[in-house]
Amino acid sequence: MQKTAYLLFYTTLFLIAVGLVMIYSTSAILAQERFGDALFFLRKELLWVAFGVVTLYVGYRVPYEFWGSASLWILILSAILLVGVMVPSVGHQVGGARRWLKVGGFSFQPSELAKYATIFFLAKRLSSGQNRVKSFVHGFLPPIAVLGLMVVMILIQPDLGTTLGIGTVGMILLFVGGVRFTYLLGLTLISLPALYYLIAGAAYRRARILAFLDPWKDPKGVGFQIIQSFIALGSGGLTGVGLGESRQKLFYLPEAHTDFIFSIIGEELGFLGVLMVCLAFFFLFVLGFRVVLKTEDLLGHLMGLGIVSLLAFQTVINMGVVTGTLPTKGLPLPFISFGGTSLVLNMAGIGILMNLAGRLDQRRNRDSRESLRVRVKAKPRRLFARRRKT
């Protein structure tokens, strides 16, 4: 395995290992109380990790061009699954949101597949249509129509966090792919009133904004979760209260093993543990963006950019919510929060980045051999020319 791909793999593996330890720590008491099995959530996550290793290997071994060629079919499959979620007898509803499909004892979240399907489609469309990318009719409208369709289907569930994620990454790809900035700026300005309506038009979203501004105004209601997160982070100090010793996970902090697992990391492992996790994510993103910047093929460049941007967006949003920097949004922390679909597809994304990194290393080695061959051939001629001069 080439050096950069090797670093991507082991950084991801480290984050997954931290996630497994913290999932057990945060969920054991809840699992024992609810299911009579302290290992319930850990066992499920281990199965998803095993499946994720397979998808990571597939992403690494299969040429990234394949995902571009199959992007339309992956997009169609995603759309069908998103429609299936809205069918009462098929979709599974939790907390007022219908986002899951039940398969046996496991849940599958189609919106996670939709993220990658949209990235693949936009990367393929923009890279193969560079001669018309500046056109409003042929270069701007078709990808925006597809992006808009996926956004609306996810928004219906409702899932504003994922909607914003796909929309943001999609706009980044369109900008880097060469679509005129004026078109994107106009679309952004048009979208602002709709975004305001989506937030102000839903009572629970308005409450989240108010809780973000002043959580102590309603400490037992909408501000409860973020206040408990603050307590968890503040209790950790420099080195934490100790692994497994968190008090906030004892039914004080809701979603401690999913969206707010970073809070428990801060409580149990302290500032040093939080710093370690943040540095691992930073290193992963630096590696990813380096691969993207060095990839000359536009399809690979856009595909890699979409994957790294998506992972970075989710990480920043999750950490921002947990620390009270951003309003509450239901986005998991990649590779660490409990959740199978997200983990499996994010591992597949890392596999694709590893494939891009492997291509770069192969090209670098080939260029080095070519350069060495040229120098070896050229050396006798230089020596011969020197003799003739003497």
Describe the structure.
The protein has one domain. It has 13 helices and 3 strands, in the order ααααβββααααααααα. With 390 residues, the chain is mainly alpha-helical. A 3-stranded antiparallel beta sheet has the order 1-2-3. Mean pLDDT is 84; it is low at 378-390.
Structural key phrases:
3-stranded antiparallel sheet; 390 residues; 13 helices; mainly alpha
Q: What class would the helix/strand composition place it in? A: mainly alpha
Number of domains: 1
Helical percentage: over 70%
Query: How many E strands?
Result: 3
List SSEs in N-to-C order: HHHHEEEHHHHHHHHH
Mean pLDDT over the full residue set: 84
Poorly predicted ranges = 378-390
DSSP summary: helix tally? 13
Q: In oligomeric terms, what are we looking at?
A: single chain
Which range does the strand content fall in?
Answer: under 5%
Gist of the model:
This protein is mainly α and 390 residues long.
Give me the secondary-structure topology.
Blueprint: H1 3-35, H2 40-61, H3 64-69, H4 71-85, E1 91-94, E2 97-103, E3 106-108, H5 110-128, H6 136-155, H7 160-177, H8 181-200, H9 203-213, H10 224-236, H11 261-294, H12 298-322, H13 340-389
Antiparallel strand pairs: 1-2, 2-3
Helix pairs in contact: 1-2, 1-11, 1-13, 2-13, 4-5, 5-6, 5-7, 5-12, 5-13, 6-7, 7-12, 10-11, 11-12, 11-13, 12-13
